[in-house]
Amino acid sequence: MALRSRILGCGSYLPEKIVTNDDLAKFVDTSDDWITARTGIKQRHMVTDGELTSDLARKAALNAIEHAGIDVQDIDLIVLGTTTPDNTFPSTATKVQAQLGLTHGFAMDVQAVCSGFMYALATADSFLKTKQAKTALVIGAESFTRLLDWEDRTTCVLFGDGAGAVILRAEEETAESSGILSTHLHSDGRYQDILMVDGGPSSTQTTGYVRMAGKEVFRHAVVNLAEVVKEALAANDLTADDIDWIVPHQANKRILDGTAKKLKVDPNKVVVTVDKHANTSAASIPLALDEAVRDGRIKRGDLLIIEAMGGGLTWGSALIRW
Ligand code: COA
Asked: How many angstroms separate the CA atoms of 25 and 132, rounded?
């Protein structure tokens, strides 16, 4: 009997500190008008001294565990998407594993930058379907503002911090069963230079800062995201009209609008949080998902598509029956 990964619950966490565009304009040569017009971002949450990615991840995870109504000891797999681990090693996933009091199963980080949650979800889904685990905690968590060069106004206004998580359980697949219907992942390393961090353990022995060719990234995003959504729909014999909700990676409101337009999807079906959270990289999809589930927009039985593109370039989509 084939297995399907069912999503039992979701959760999220945002650092308490909020920084508005006007706050930023006090120390960066920018303005609320410019940021709002180009990106749709109005504010972002930011970690403070001593607040770690693992702290955000753990809080989102506990929130998801409660929402799913499972015993924490049921979890036998943790996959955590992050580009801002607490340390180069061990993985932040193993730290969260210990913090949750788990000593069985296995835990790993996945690095695909803004596609990190997509990649983590697809990785967990594969382990569940091949019976290597039964209950997975999938997290996207970032303290991305730690990678920002506050002298570079073309990047520092775009990002924020946060975490989101989902609980997956392998269940027997039936025609009606909900869960992850498909995942599609892609990468193309030829474009590694247009969105990258200029440091790392083996290159500079420093952490480095985000560097980005914004216009080029924008162009690739709209094309790749529309394509990978169409790929998911075709693989499931569905059309864009069948989708109830798009829960996209939240990079920029103009990318969300451009992708919806290319797909001919009603913009009201797109879950938007970029105005409040900015781009939280691997955390943005589970943060948006959790918001739309908890405020009642996403209901059991709805058809969702999640999609993301990030540095690498990496991109992907997952079709989910909620
Ligand atoms: N505040 C004020 N002015 C700014 C600014 C800021 N924060 N950042 C750049 N500018 C200025 C530039 O210096 C430039 O001025 P100039 O015309 O005098 O040279 C002008 O604004 C236009 O800059 P440009 O880079 O052409 O803007 P843009 O329309 O491409 O918008 C982005 C910039 C970054 C918002 C846009 O390219 C984008 O969203 N790209 C995708 C980024 C992304 O989402 N990356 C993550 C993907 S996971």
From this structure: 50
Query: How many Å apart are CA 76 and CA 102, to the nearest integer?
Result: 8
Phi, psi of 88 (to 5 degrees): -60, -45
Give dist(CA 96, CA 82) in Å, integer: 13
In this structure, the answer to whether residues 11 and 142 fall within a common structural domain is yes
Say if residue 144 is in the same domain as residue 201.
no
Exactly one of 63, 114, 156, 252 is catalytic; name it. 114
Q: Which of 172, 205, 225 is the last residue of a domain?
A: 172
- Rounded to whole angstroms, the Cα distance separating 217 from 311 reads 9
Whether residue 218 has its Cβ less than 6 Å from ligand 1:
yes
CA distance 122 to 315: 12
Active site residue 249: yes
Range of the domain at 279: 179-321
Residue type, position 277, single letter: H
pLDDT tens digit string along 24-42?
999 999 999 999 999 999 9
Instruction: Name the token pair of 271.
Output: 């879950």
Kindly report the protein residue whose alpha carbon is nearest to atom 33 of ligand 1. Answer: 214
Task: Based on the residue annotation, tell me whether 10 is a catalytic residue of this protein.
Answer: no
0.85 cut: is pTM over it? yes
Atom of ligand 1 nearest to the CA of 308: 48
Ligand 1, residues 32, 154, 253: which to mutate, most atoms within 8 A of Cβ? 154
Q: Are residues 13 and 152 in the same domain?
A: yes
Q: What are phi and psi of 31, to 5 degrees?
A: -150, 155
| Nearest to 165, CA basis, from 43, 65, 19, 37 | 65
How many Å separate Cα 92 from the centre of its chain? 16
pLDDT tier, 175 (very low <50, low <70, confident <90, very high otherwise): confident
Provide the domain count of the chain.
2
Beta bridge partners of 79: 108, 138
Given a contact cutoff of 8 angstroms between Cβ atoms, the answer to whether 281 and 159 are in contact is yes
Q: Quick one: CA dihedral 96, 102, 103, 107, positive or negative?
A: negative
